[in-house]
Structures are given as C-alpha cells and as structure tokens.
Amino acid sequence: MKQIKVLGSGCRNCEITAKVISQAAAEAGIEIDLEKVTDIAEIMGYGVMSTPGVVIDGVVVHSGSVPGPDQVREWVQGSTDGAS
C-alpha cells in the first residue's frame, strides 16, 4: 500500500489534489493511505515551499500546482521517476 500525503493549508487546490489522487487510485484498483498534512512545520520539513505538495512513500514527487490526472495515475501505479 502506498503512503501518500497531500501537503497544504487545506486550500481548494489541495482538496482537488487529494480528490484526483483518490480517484486515480480507485480507477487503478490500487489501495492507498491518503493523509492531508496542514501543519506548516511538517510541510516545511519536506522542503516544500509551494503547495499543494505530494509525498509518496516519504519522497516529495510534486509541489506548487494541482498535478494532472495522467501524472497521478503514473504515481499510484508505481512510477515516481517523473517527479516534478
């Protein structure tokens, strides 16, 4: 099971990011543990300066914008090589 964290203040883009990730995982039939992190100190601990940020299994794979559905599908299916 992939551990995925959406980093952000709970803004609209953070909520959209969490929904896109949940939907992509459901469509792929992949079980994930999705956590929303709103604590600024924890977010800064990942080195993310622009939210929303996405962390998969402890690795920051994206920050600063809502990721596209194709990108999220790649993440949940196992490839985080194209991290941005």
Features:
alpha+beta; 4 strands; single chain; 3 helices; Glutaredoxin; 4-stranded mixed β-sheet; 84 residues
Written description of the protein model:
By secondary structure, this protein is an alpha+beta fold. The chain has a single domain, classed as Glutaredoxin, CATH 3.40.30. Helix content is 37%, strand content 25%. It has 3 helices and 4 strands. Strands 2-1-3-4 form a 4-stranded mixed beta sheet. Helix 1 (12-28) crosses helix 3. The longest helix is centred in the N-terminal third of the chain and has 17 residues, at 12-28. The model has no long low-confidence stretch (mean pLDDT 91).
List the helices and strands and how they pair.
Elements: E1 2-7, H1 12-28, E2 32-37, H2 40-45, E3 53-56, E4 59-63, H3 69-76
Parallel strand pairs: 1-2
Antiparallel strand pairs: 1-3, 3-4
Helix pairs in contact: 1-3
Rg, alpha carbons: 11 Å
Mean pLDDT: 91
Helices and strands, in N-to-C order?
Answer: EHEHEEH
Distance separating the two termini: 22 Å
Amount of helix: 25-40%
Outline the biggest β-sheet.
4 strands, mixed
Largest sheet strand order: 2-1-3-4
Q: What is the CATH third-level topology name? A: Glutaredoxin
Low-confidence stretches: none
Count of folded domains:
1
User: Which descriptor suits the 3D outline?
Assistant: globular
Total E-strand runs: 4
- Determine and state the CATH class: Alpha Beta
